[in-house]
Amino acid sequence: MAQLLTISEVSKRSGVAASALRFYEGRGLISSERAGSGHRRFRRPVLRRIAFIVFAQRIGLSLDEIGVELAKLPADRAPSAKDWSQLSSSWSARIDERIAELERLKAGLTECIGCGCLSLGRCKLTNPDDRVSKFGPGPRFWVTD
Amino acid sequence: MAQLLTISEVSKRSGVAASALRFYEGRGLISSERAGSGHRRFRRPVLRRIAFIVFAQRIGLSLDEIGVELAKLPADRAPSAKDWSQLSSSWSARIDERIAELERLKAGLTECIGCGCLSLGRCKLTNPDDRVSKFGPGPRFWVTD
DNA sequence: CTAAAAGTTCAAGTGAGCTTGAAGTCAAGA
DNA sequence: TCTTGACTTCAAGCTCACTTGAACTTTTAG
Questions:
Q1: In angstroms, how far is CA B86 from the centroid of its own chain?
Q2: CB < 7 A to strand D: residues 7-26, chain B
Q3: How much is the pTM?
């Protein structure tokens, strides 16, 4: 296979639809060169970048947040393994926070809903400023008397 | 406070916007009686129902899925603590699955992106049919050579 | 050489989960 | 009584993350 990949090659290798790749490029998350015809030509490192996007989404980051992370990579040279691991190391903490929230939720399911307390004092759900926990809408707190 | 709650009372106690409460009622997730004026009057147990909705959303269920769960509650009587805990008990497993996925992701971050393998064989990310993991879009697999 | 497959742009559509606005009614306090 | 403020419905709008369609060009296989 050639050095430069077509959009369908990248799509097949990444599992990301070509339309999504164009969308990501429009958002500045990935970039491509162009063949004389105007067709996109992706360099191989884009695959790692896409992998990162996919991972990050599943962790729960928005594309905007992902863009901020990707902007930390060096622009002048191909990112090294070290660059990537620096980016991702800060995420372990975020994942851990999300896991902790899920465990609070799990406890809350039985302790709060199951038993009927639903009180702010006893409920472990209160964590208003937890940015990582922003999985979907819904209130940030729960109040009863 | 009265037995029956106005929409703004419910909103304040639940942390859920009045517009969202109307929306939930439209979707059949909660219900209300009406005052002679046409204004909504909520019975207190609606608070627990809303709590359940909020929990479920943060776990990652869609409103449709939540509706299915709520439909399992007895229609003829106020749900007991037992009814609620039966509903929520099945969710512990779902939460555990999600936690497991997050831990796979965490491992993947350093092992796959950090090191550069990105291979399907070695990558722990492959879990195509994991319904709980459907947090946002993105591909269900990752393929490289 | 030709037909089909693959690529392009740009605008509009989708679905989830709400929010906002318009236009009007009802309730509570001075 | 008057005037806020809370409430109603209904339709339209919004954000996110894409997808789809139209109209067109380029590449590739036979």
A1: 16
A2: 7-9, 18, 22
A3: 0.81
